[in-house]
Amino acid sequence: MSLTEYFELLFTDYTLRTITLGTAVLGAICGMLGSFAVLRKQSLLGDAISHAALPGIALAFLITGAKDTNILLLGALVSGLIGTFWIKGMVSKTHLKSDTALGLVLSLFFGFGMLLLTFIQKQPNANQAGLDKYLFGQAATLVEDDVRLMLIVTGISLCILLLFWKEFKILLFDADYTKTLGFNTKFIDVLITFFIVLAIVLGLQTVGVVLMSAMLLAPAAAARQWTNRLSMMILLAAIFGILSGVLGTAISASQNNLSTGPVIVLVATVFVVFSFIFSPGRGLFFREIRFRNNRKDLQLKKTLQFMYGIAKTHDNISHPHAIRILNNFQGFTKKSLQQMEDKEWITINGQQWALTSKGFNEAMNLYNKTHD
Amino acid sequence: MKTPLAVQVDDLTVAYNYKPVLWDIDLAVPEGVLMAIVGPNGAGKSTLIKAILGIIKPIAGSISIYDKPYEEQRKLVAYVPQKGSVDWDFPTTALDVVMMGTYGSLGWIKRPGQKEKKAALEALEKVGMLSFKNRQISQLSGGQQQRVFLARALVQNAAIYFMDEPFQGVDATTEIAIINILKELRKAGKTLIVVHHDLQTVPEYFDWVTFLNVKKIATGPVKEIFNDDNLTKTYGINYKVAINK
Predict the structure, then answer these.
(1) Do A3-282 and A299-364 share a fold?
(2) What ipTM does this complex have?
């Protein structure tokens, strides 16, 4: 199936439509809430949470003996939340730094989860097959009910986000100050964290425990490059998330054997790389161009300054001088003189140059510009 | 008539883990003073402010603002944190940061409107930053960032201002601009409590001073208590002799 065929099928094929819608919604909620994780410098928290969810899935299966998605995800939610608040508790109650706490909880929960998974696989229960799909996710298992659940959670988190927008923003920027204004920062913090955990848990079925954090961080990291406004960043992150979901599903569906989760994550990563290089304000590419332009500009001004030194000894500032007398000054070329003429700083007549009044004023004010 | 006490601290003790950072502090700040808190690094100056503002939970002690518990008097208090305490790469503008000063009086959920925006613009103008209102905050210089923080506190229109090293890392122009604003606030009857590092400028800038080094060494009018004796007690060396060597 080619990509064009895929997009044609999208409107007729029920399964394909469900999966695409599911990954798109997942991308939106992850991008939105991932922005908060990135701005709070808690990027790795997402990784720890998703790994911490694994034992919850296994335990939910062991207790109920059924493979109902909602119950398994409920288990994931509970153990994800336990892991998260354990990390937060460790950081506030002990001397441990947050990366240490994250690492400890991540490996502890993941190890325990793997242990339970292998234990389940040894059971004579035929039902157990396929639990390991939560490791890397399997979008093909998405059904309409799953997508509906995702839509509901996304809707609720959007409402919460809009309702507490001001509180979220100020907590992200300056938590101590927020406290002095009388806001219950713990409540805001728990609210944000709860929804981040919820988004991660929703994605486990599609993207899996191992790659889930990329889904959360990549769209947000890409979006940060394009804007200096929080609202725009969150909107862009959601859009990048949706695009990653849809394009990733399209690519994996059109190339028969590629699993969807990793492809979605790779597409999201492409967005990140592209943004890091080509975003106008912060991108490496334009920064390099700006840097070079500045250097060239400075070179021109150096030459101008030298000309100014010569010209100001004459009564008539536009008195022509031979180009040759510039020779002992490094850093001018035919091209740079031409550029100076284009800027109307000088006029060139044969082998002679003359400063214009515009060039004279420019040179005079070169070092008078006070910093703001 | 006796001037009322703006801030009163009784038996305040703060400890991170075992080592006390502040030990049994009693402090009474009369209304309308411009007070410096001075002391060596690690003396607990920032901690004192944070404990008064409820950011850090003390082990013991009580705080009152105009004779009532701090929790009831929050609206009378504004805070200027250390500039380095936040991430200036946060995606927002100078105006937006100053608007945050209005969030406290707005309370939960309610959004700032035209009235709040007007107040924020006025505060920006007061600190000479109006032309930078739409500037992304990471593109401001250190001094400008400090002015934005000051404007955010001005918007709160408080009676008592707590400031944590507002002169740190700013150039002379900004320092003068800030101290003029502080003096203006004092003239308007506000009380200002400022963590300060530069001992040379204490007599010139402030009329009240507290010497702190885990314990409170002395507090009172600069004219009466800013002397060798207290400096030596606080810094452990004979300050004037040491710098004149």
Answers:
(1) no
(2) 0.92
Using an 8 Å Cβ cutoff, are B35 and B222 in contact? no
B61: alpha, beta or left? (left if phi > 0; alpha if psi -120 to 50): left
Question: Hey, where are the domains in chain A?
Answer: 3-282, 299-364
A3-282: CATH number: 1.10.3470.10
Using the structure block, give the residue that is written with the tokens 């060798």.
B228
Topology given in CATH for the domain delimited by A299-364: Arc Repressor Mutant, subunit A (1.10.10)
A172: contact with B, CB 8 A cutoff? yes
Mean pLDDT by 10 residues, chain B (245 residues): 85 86 93 94 92 92 92 92 92 95 90 92 93 93 93 95 93 92 94 93 93 92 90 78 54
Residues A329-358: pLDDT tens digits? 556 677 777 888 888 888 888 778 888 888
Which of A94, A176, A191, A279 is the best substitution to test chain B (most B C-beta atoms within 10 A)? A176
Rounded CA separation A28/A18 (Å): 15
**What number of residues does chain A have?**
372
B90 vs A180: CB contact, 8 Å cut-off?
no
The number of CA neighbours under 13 Å toward the Cβ of A71 is 12
Q: For chain A, give the percent of residues with pLDDT over 90.
A: 49
- The alpha-carbon gap from A173 to the nearest alpha carbon of chain B, in Å, equals 6
